[in-house]
Design brief:
- This protein is elongated.
- 29% of the residues lie in helices and 27% in strands.
- It has six helices and 14 strands.
- The longest helix has 25 residues.
- It folds into two domains: 122 residues, 3-Layer(aba) Sandwich (Rossmann fold), CATH 3.40.50.10610; 115 residues, Double Stranded RNA Binding Domain (2-Layer Sandwich), CATH 3.30.160.
- Helix 1 packs across helix 3 and helix 4 crosses helix 5.
- It is of the alpha/beta class.
Amino acid sequence: MPSRIFLFFMCFSLAACGSAPRPFKSKAGDWTNPLAEPVGGYDIRVEPVDGPAKPMALLLSRSVAAALAAKDVPATVEGTAKSRFVLRGKAEPNWDGPRASYIIVIRWVLSDAKGNTVGDYTQGVRGEWFEWENGDPKIIRAVGQEAAQPFAEMIRKKEEVLPPAELRGSGLLVKDVTGAPGDGGRALTAAIKESLTLTDVSVTEDPRQVDYVLQGVVDVSAPVKGKQWVKVTWTVSTLAGAKVGAATQENRVAAGSLNGAWGKIASQVASAAIGGIGDILARANKPRVKEAPKERDETRKKSTRPPRLKQIPGKAPPPPI
């Protein structure tokens, strides 16, 4: 599995950090989009498969992680790496008979960070026993490719059905992204609008429907030793111009690598920004309850007591209603 080349940072000015979904795939088995990699972690951490010898267990887990990466799902086998989900597999011999079509059955379970099961998949492995016992590359590759497919789909489905709740129904005016090299301004503007729309956000240009305004700004440093720092800042403000918060994405990239067409990178950067924007709006929309001073409370209690009316001799006050 290729080493991690870039690190993505996404923070927003309300003192929190968010994570990004998937990076842009530059080639099979390698992910290098620095503006859309997960914050300090991955989507899936694949643990060594339980059952086979340790070398075989590691080869299988690496094969699955590489296949997930090829499907734009950041994955790792590093035991200390942060991840949104953990994938565990248990391999058992299939002793149902000499004519059994599978020599091994692997039961995979995907869990979230709290240990809750998200999904599972049972995989049958075809081949000869000596191939399995000797770690045949064909079997290892086949296991990785087959196991990665259902879990990549689970991750995508979970992202689709769980958009940031704070964004749904919000009316956003999206201004054109400025400062980006190449076609980044146009591409990022279109991509962020599309990503917001996919999460049920009402993107509008009608001031009567606007709750907040979103502005994206790209800053690119001068090249130093063939590298440039790229920073994308998404600022959320009110229609009157008051700043609500800002989410930033930044990293060092190869000099000139973004001077042309951004293509799929723009979509991944925009998708990565949605979580940070949602957190900003969540804090902005959180109601604030201010406690009344005790003296005022006491005065209010006294003022709610019924007044004592002067009684007329021989007359009783009316019964309570």
